[in-house]
Amino acid sequence: MNHQKLLLQQTVNHIHPLSEEDFEDFYTLFKPYTAKRKEVLTQAGSVEKYLYFVLEGLQRLYYLDEHHREATLVFSYQANFGGVLDSMMNQKPSRYYYETLSPSVFLRASYAQIEELLINKPAIEVLLRKGLTGVFSGILERLVELQCFSSEEKFQQLLRRSPHILQIVPHKYLANYIGIDPSNFSKLINSIKM
């Protein structure tokens, strides 16, 4: 089994194990795709067409308001699914951008093909539901952090969830994710015992 397929299967098994046949049917939907650094894969206002599986690289999902202020919402990196999931599942225009922060290698499947497979493969529908439930749980945790935690507590939570994040995400994006000015980020790092 090639490395890409194995990585996808390990991630799928962590969410909801599939039979060999169901996994093969799911895997055949995914095609290789590469993107350059700072490439916008999904624009606000467009409908997400793909489910991405990250093999290499770093991406972010962000919101841009009418004053051109950005809010980084989510990072994706190796062995994560990515894309604008609400737009894909609802087939409605996205309010968010999905962009690469580094050169990236993906496997990606079109939503139309996934939708077709869901009709005949209930286990894949369960996989998708469990995956989305996990995403929803993460969003609720993040809302609590945003409303109740100090910047230091938000940063500590982020490091607990993703201890390697400091090595892969540029600090200006981490500062944006936490909601502080980038100039204060180095003070925050120095104030926390790691």
TrEMBL record:
Instruction: Domain (Cyclic nucleotide-binding): give its ranges.
Output: 36-118
Q: Which residues cross the membrane?
A: none
InterPro entries in the cross-refs? cNMP-bd_dom, cNMP-bd_dom_sf, RmlC-like_jellyroll
For this protein, the record's Pfam families field holds: cNMP_binding
Superkingdom is Bacteria
From the Swiss-Prot or TrEMBL record, give the protein name. CRP-like cAMP-binding protein
Q: Which organism is it from?
A: Arcicella rosea
